[in-house]
Amino acid sequence: MNPERFIKNKSALVTLIAASLIVIISLGIRQTFGMFYLDFELDLQITLRQFSFAIGLQMFLWGLFGPLFGIVTDKYGGHIAVFIGFVFYLLGILLLYSGFNKGFYFIINMGILIGIGLGATAVSIPVSVVSKHFPSSNRTIATGIVTAAGSFGYFVSPLFTRMSLVEYGWLNTLLFFSIFLVIGLFLAFLLTTPKNVVGGKIEDKQTAWEAINEAFKNKSFIYLTLGFFVCGWHITLIATHIPAYLNDRGLPGVYAATLLSMIGLFNIFGTLSSGYLSTKYPKKLILSSIYLMRGLIITLFIFLPPSPTLAILFGVTFGFLWLATVPPTAGIVSSMFGTKYMGLLYGIVFLSHQVGSFFGAYLGGVFKEVYGSYDYAWYVSIALSIFAGLIHLPIKEKQVKRLQPA
C-alpha cells in the first residue's frame, strides 16, 4: 500500500490521529469499570444487580445517543459531537469522585451521564468521521486503525487501573481519569468532517429520514443490525463480569487485569487484520467467522478447568476477535449506502450493539444472583454466537440502486 495514496491530505492524517487518541481515552476508561465493582460494593454499598443495571443503562444510552450524535456529526461536524460527549463523560466521572455516588446518584453518573458521553466519544462517531476522509478501497483499513487504537486503550488501561487502585485507591483513580478526559476535550477540535465526503455523491439531496427509510427497507441492513446485537452482548458481559467470574473460580484480581489487558493488546492485531481482510474478501464471511470462533472460544473457556494460563489464553484469543467486527460492519454500511449519512446509519447499527450490551451487562448480574453462577450467561453467549454466524450469510454487499451508475 502506498502511504501517499492512503493519506490523501493533512486533514485526513490529523483526523485519523485525533480519532485514534480519542477512542484510546474513551474506550480505555470504559473497559475498566468492572474492576471498580468490589470497591463500589464495599464503600458505596452498591449491589451486583445495581452495578449491572448501571453498566447496562450506560451501554444502552451509549447506543441510543449514537445516532443522535451521528446527526450532529453529519450536519455540524464530528468535533462538535465529540466535545459535547466528553463534557458528559467528564461530568459523570467528577460526580462519582465528588461524593454524589450512592444509590440513585450512582445510576445517574455511571449509567446516564457516562452513557451519553460514550455515545459521541467511543467508536461510532470517530469511525464515521474518519470514514468520510477515505475511499471505499481503503476505508476499512482506516477504520481498523481507529478501532485498533481503542484496543491499545484496552491494553494499557486495565494495567494502569489495577496499579492505581492498589496504590492510590478508587477515588484518586477517577481523578486520573478526569485528567485524560480533559485532554479529550481538546483533541475533539482536531477532528474535521469534509463537506464533500469521499465516496459519496456531492449532489445527493437525500434527507436523513429518507436515508433511514431506505436502510430499513434493505434486508441486509436488518441482518447486519441483528448480528451486531450479539457483539454487544459478548464484549460487555466479559468486560463487566469477568473480574467477578474469575474471582468465583479462585483466581486473584491480577489475572482479571491481565486478561482484559491481553484482550486490548491482541485486539490491535485482530482489528487491523479484519480491516485488511475486509478489502480482500466478502465482509459478511469475515463477520460470520468471527462470531462462530467466539462461540468456540467461550465453550472451551467455561468447560476447561480454571487456571491462570487458561485466563490469559482466553484474553489472547478472544481479544483477537474483540472489536474485529467493527471494520467489516462499518464497511458494509458505507459500501451499501455511501458515507453522507454514515454517522447516522452506523449509529443505528451500533444502537443494536448497545441493546445487546445492556442485556449482557444486566442479565449477567441477574443470572449470577438468581442461580449463583454465570453459567447461564455463558450458555446464552454460545447460542448467540451461532445465531450471529448464520444471520450474516444472507447479506448482499452491494450499493443501493440510488448510488449505482446509470
Provide an overview of this structure.
With 406 residues, this protein is mainly α. It has a single domain, classed as Growth Hormone, Chain: A, CATH 1.20.1250.20. Helix content is 79%, strand content 0%. The protein is built from 16 helices and no strands. It has helices at 3-6, 10-31, 37-44, 48-76, 78-98, 104-121, 124-131, 136-187, 208-216, 219-248, 253-277, 283-303, 308-321, 326-337, 342-371, 375-391. Helix 5 packs antiparallel against helix 6 (104-121), helix 5 crosses helix 8 and helix 12 (283-303) packs antiparallel against helix 16 (375-391). The chain is globular and about 60 Å long.
Distance between the termini: 31 Å
- Unreliable stretches: 198-203
CATH homologous superfamily caption? MFS general substrate transporter like domains
The structural class is mainly alpha
What summary fits the major beta sheet? none
Task: Label the overall shape.
Answer: globular
Helix content: over 70%
Number of domains: 1
The CATH architecture can be given as Up-down Bundle
H/E order of the elements?
HHHHHHHHHHHHHHHH
Record the SSE blueprint.
Elements: H1 3-6, H2 10-31, H3 37-44, H4 48-76, H5 78-98, H6 104-121, H7 124-131, H8 136-187, H9 208-216, H10 219-248, H11 253-277, H12 283-303, H13 308-321, H14 326-337, H15 342-371, H16 375-391
